[in-house]
């Protein structure tokens, strides 16, 4: 285990913060994670494999955050590390960030269970910095200055301001109501007194929403919560189950943003996570019965022409 060095120097008036432990399942993953970590201005423990990280966590008492970067399908050491990271996140010892690819999302989420971690999927540099900022607190990012280059210092300040802005937005999104969690018994099919919705009409509505991006900029119409609810209602009607990765695609926004919406709606009791009884490495998302009933009654009131 080595402590990476960089040209960042800390203000002497600021207390030295605990380092970030960087872990990757490939050399490229470790280098990518280390780059993001060092850009934050915090000290970095780098070049750790998943197996090394499990051992290091036993020895290391203090961290600002644990960053896990995954390039390949999770192996047994990666799965063990994710499970350990979930337990550490629950104990609030330090923040946890997991960066993965969309192809790995379902298995990664199954290993993390309901752990309160910052999960990044196909994230760009700004999303990665924002995720780290949320994991350890926005005030920790940008506390360093680059003594080697004024231009680099200016760039770091710009990144710090942007990360703080994004982190504040994401934090507001992550706030959930205090609604009690749903029990498995609530997953019964909707009652017979709720209106039926035509699967064909719903498919036509979803297609019409997608077509807007063919004529106007797609970001004008970003409405991930609504798009995910439509996709889940369609799946419910045709009795299909929706994995987390598929629902992220249906949201028509970056996967990391979609995950935050899924978490927010799940915390509020609008959606329910269900493990696949036949495959412990896959997680499905369903609407809560009250959400389904409300959506069906909405369409009964306004008609299926509402887009």
Radius of gyration over C-alpha positions, nearest whole angstrom: 21 Å
Count of separate structural domains: 2
The main pleated sheet reads as: 6 strands, mixed
The rounded distance between the terminal residues' Cα atoms is 55 Å
Helix content: 40-55%
CATH class of the largest domain: Alpha Beta
The dominant shape is elongated
Low-pLDDT stretches are 1-14, 138-153, 171-191
In DSSP terms (H or I, runs of 4 or more residues), the helix count works out at 11
Please, what is the CATH homologous superfamily of the largest domain? Response regulator
Give the helices and strands as they follow along the chain: EEEHEHEHEHEHEHHHEHHEEH
Kindly estimate the percentage of residues that lie in beta strands according to DSSP: 15-25%
Predict the CATH topology of the largest domain.
Answer: Rossmann fold
The CATH architecture of the largest domain can be named as 3-Layer(aba) Sandwich
* Mean pLDDT over the residues: 77
Judged by helices, strands and strand pairing, the structural class is: alpha/beta
Walk across the major sheet and give the strand order.
1-4-3-5-6-7
Number of strands: 11
InterPro entries: WH-like_DNA-bd_sf, WH_DNA-bd_sf
Keywords: DNA-binding
Organism: Sphingomonas kaistensis
Protein name: Winged helix DNA-binding protein
């Amino acid at each position: 285990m080595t402590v990476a060095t960089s040209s960042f120097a800390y203000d002497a008036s600021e207390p030295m913060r605990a380092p970030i432990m960087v872990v990757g399942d490939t050399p490229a993953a470790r280098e990518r994670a280390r780059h993001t970590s060092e850009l934050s201005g915090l000290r970095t423990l780098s070049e750790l494999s998943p197996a090394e990280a499990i051992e290091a966590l036993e020895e290391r008492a203090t961290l600002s955050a644990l960053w896990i970067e995954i390039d390949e399908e999770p192996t047994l050491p990666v799965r063990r590390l994710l499970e350990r990271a979930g337990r550490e996140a629950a104990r609030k010892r330090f923040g946890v960030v997991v960066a993965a690819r969309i192809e790995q999302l379902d298995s990664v989420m199954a290993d993390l269970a309901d752990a309160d971690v910052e999960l990044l999927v196909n994230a760009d540099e700004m999303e990665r910095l924002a995720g780290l900022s949320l994991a350890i607190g926005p005030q920790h990012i940008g506390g360093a200055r680059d003594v080697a280059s004024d231009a680099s210092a200016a760039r770091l300040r710009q990144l710090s301001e942007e990360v703080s802005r994004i982190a504040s937005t994401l934090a507001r999104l992550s706030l959930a109501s205090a609604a009690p969690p749903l029990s498995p018994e609530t997953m019964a099919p909707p009652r017979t007194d709720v209106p039926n919705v035509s699967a064909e009409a719903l498919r036509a509505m979803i297609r019409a929403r997608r077509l807007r991006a063919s004529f106007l900029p797609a970001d004008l119409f970003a409405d991930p919560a609504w798009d995910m609810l439509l996709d889940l209602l369609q799946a419910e009607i045709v009795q299909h189950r929706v994995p987390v990765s598929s629902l992220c695609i249906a949201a028509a926004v970056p996967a990391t943003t979609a995950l935050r919406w899924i978490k927010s709606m799940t915390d509020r009791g609008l959606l329910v996570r269900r493990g696949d009884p036949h495959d412990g490495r896959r997680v499905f998302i369903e609407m809560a019965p009250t959400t389904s009933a409300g959506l069906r009654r909405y369409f009964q009131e306004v008609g299926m022409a509402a887009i």
